[in-house]
Amino acid sequence: MRRPSALVLMYHGVDRVGAVRDPHAMFVTPEAFRAQVEHVLESGFVPITVQDYLAGLDGVPLPQKAVLITFDDGYLGVGEHAAPVLASFGVPSVLYVPAGLLGGWSEWLEPRHRHRLMSDADLRAVHGQGMAVGVHGLDHTDLTTLSDAELRRQTVDTREVLESVVGDDVRSFAFPYGSHDARVRAAVRAAGYRAAFAVHDREDDFAIRRVDVNAFDTMRTFRLKLRPLYPSVRSASERFPAARRLAHDLLGRAVRDQHDGGTVTVRTR
Ligand SMILES: [Zn+2]
Fold this sequence. Notes:
It is found in: Secreted. The protein is α/β, with parallel strands linked by helices.
């Protein structure tokens, strides 16, 4: 099946957090986020909804330069800072949340690096502003470590919880840590989702590649990440050290900086 050509961006937090509380560089500032959205629009990208994206998987044509904006984890700042900016530009997006931790904290991180997550009410508010919702597991456990019964809880039960919170169908999934294997992909498919987002990985409806945007990004690296060639050059450079020179030549400092920056582009949080 032909894959839709949409660019899929992956954000985590949008807030003023600082490196001490954000060692994984997951948070972009509200100012940077606004500038990035403006740049996306000025560059002729056409933001699409996740429903559009899923229809694209079924063969419905997408606009040229389609872009899907995704957020993982459901940090409070996404509701406070990103949702209003997106709403002001009429830009849709989709938010992947660990449904069992709504209103709590990102408990999968070190205690000093935890951040507040949206509540049920926050989720309904952003949903009303044009942010669709999807499942990011129940409690952000790495799904590849779970029994079949627990995997079912994290996919099937979680979807029902989230659908009742937002009063809408939930048809897409994002793997915690971007971590998956054949059994996990099969479980997500069997749970009735139409697609699942990963980070790098394979091009498959249940492991869709995304381009991460993080605290290290400048406007220059952000612009590079919008290039069609970026994902394949990035994954080649991570799998084969010999390809890094090529990646560096093509993309400049963006790739090298990310290697120096540590784990953030290797596994999502
Ligand atoms: Zn996550």
